[in-house]
Amino acid sequence: MSTSAHIANTTLTPAAQRILDTAAELFYTRGIHAVGVDTIAAESGVTKRTLYDRFGSKDGLLVTYLEQRDRRWRALIETRLADHTDPVERVLTPFDVLPEWLPDNTRGCSFINAFAELPEPDHPGRQVIVAEKTWLYELFDRLLAEAGAAGHETVAVQLLSLHEGAIISYSITERRDAAAAVRTAAEQLTRAATTR
């Protein structure tokens, strides 16, 4: 088990949670490389030694931050999926949660932002990012298959692209209607694929 996986499955101490909350805000708003452990320690009110004791390294802290966001996102979608029985509505669930997710994420997708800063394929943070996007694609693919969609693998790529595009449109062009617009397009694609 990796250090970050161990941290993710352990209840954090109040100091560790404060470090993680501070790092999450700084990584998201300023960027990963622009923020050092000195800044994180100072702004969270702990020593660097405490940061290293709890997370091992800046990379360990970064991975924990990404894993925490991934868990929150997946939990939100899974909770909403449980509310739907209609196959098409289930496919559209990741679009339905965007209006409540986006207002707190005005700098775009934290995973895409981190991906741009982590060019090394074997970086543990990059692996979390790839796993999150792969999970979303596979979720679309599975739900489409369950709905009886023709060509579900291709439609899943289309839905993933619409979903990610909505986040970019919302944050960069400030299109506050992006989530609703892509949800309409996603529904059209899904219904076309599931109508025989």
TrEMBL record:
<protein>
    <submittedName>
        <fullName>TetR/AcrR family transcriptional regulator</fullName>
    </submittedName>
</protein>
<dbReference type="InterPro" id="IPR036271">
    <property type="entry name" value="Tet_transcr_reg_TetR-rel_C_sf"/>
</dbReference>
<dbReference type="Pfam" id="PF00440">
    <property type="entry name" value="TetR_N"/>
</dbReference>
<dbReference type="InterPro" id="IPR001647">
    <property type="entry name" value="HTH_TetR"/>
</dbReference>
<feature type="domain" description="HTH tetR-type">
    <location>
        <begin position="13"/>
        <end position="73"/>
    </location>
</feature>
<feature type="DNA-binding region" description="H-T-H motif">
    <location>
        <begin position="36"/>
        <end position="55"/>
    </location>
</feature>
<keyword id="KW-0805">Transcription regulation</keyword>
<dbReference type="GO" id="GO:0003677">
    <property type="term" value="F:DNA binding"/>
</dbReference>
<keyword id="KW-0238">DNA-binding</keyword>
<dbReference type="InterPro" id="IPR009057">
    <property type="entry name" value="Homeodomain-like_sf"/>
</dbReference>
<keyword id="KW-0804">Transcription</keyword>
